[in-house]
Amino acid sequence: xxxxxxxxxxxxxxxxxxxxxxxxxxxxxxxxxxxxxxxxxxxxxxxxxxxxxxxxxxxxxxxxxxxxxxxxxxxxxxxxxxxxxxxxxxxxxxxxxxxxxxxxxxxxxxxxxxxxxxxxxxxxxxxxxxxxxxxxxxxxxxxxxxxxxxxxxxxxxxxxxxxxxxxxxxxxxxxxxxxxxxxxxxxxxxxxxxxxxxxxxxxxxxxxxxxxxxxxxxxxxxxxxxxxxxxxxxxxxxxxxxxxxxxxxxxxxxxxxxxxxxxxxxxxx
Length: 269
Fold this sequence. Notes:
Blueprint: E1 2-7, H1 13-22, E2 27-32, H2 44-60, E3 65-68, H3 71-84, E4 91-93, H4 96-104, E5 115-116, E6 121-126, H5 128-133, H6 135-141, E7 144-145, E8 148-153, H7 157-162, H8 166-183, E9 189-192, H9 201-208, E10 213-215, H10 217-231, E11 242-245, H11 249-260, E12 267-268
Parallel strand pairs: 1-2, 1-3, 2-11, 3-4, 5-7, 6-8, 6-9, 9-10, 11-12
């Protein structure tokens, strides 16, 4: 039995790693659409088509539940996929929900009117496509009022991480934080709105300052998934676990091993 985890590349491995630690008895099938990464510079229609194709593949492989461990896919494709309907017995979930639950300190099933929350000034670091979608602000507005969100499109960071150039990635993070702080000098909280960014969490924290609370998605998504599977145990599916990529398996395996610092072997999707 396996839960599907989809990402445009390797960023979703941060979610997978946290989920495996939180749920050691659950198998996972990870799909990296490395041939088309990064998604963050693509238009919404293209992102939707690529995401839909990959999720269908995971469903066909026996994954009843698929997690979009990609903020860009969650922002540009999730709502449309759910509105157009999914096959009976299948589910697709994104990564915004656990993040907003943590930020607003209210459960997703809480349908009471939006209310004021403690955090008033939030910095959002994300890909250009996620920023332009305004999906995070839209979902947040359903649950909270009076929150000022300043978004910073972090061009180049995903590419640098995927290429294994962490020195460039760190320099880009510092530059993007500087740009954000020119627009919002004193954020109270920062959202790392891309699953690649937790690898740069310490760099973000240093650049932002120790008084800024940085929200990273891996552990939040893992805890939310644990709760979901406890309520829906049959959603573990009957697929086989493993790692799939639309890119070159040897290259992606090498990068993934470097990414998680343990041996990861991808197969062609």
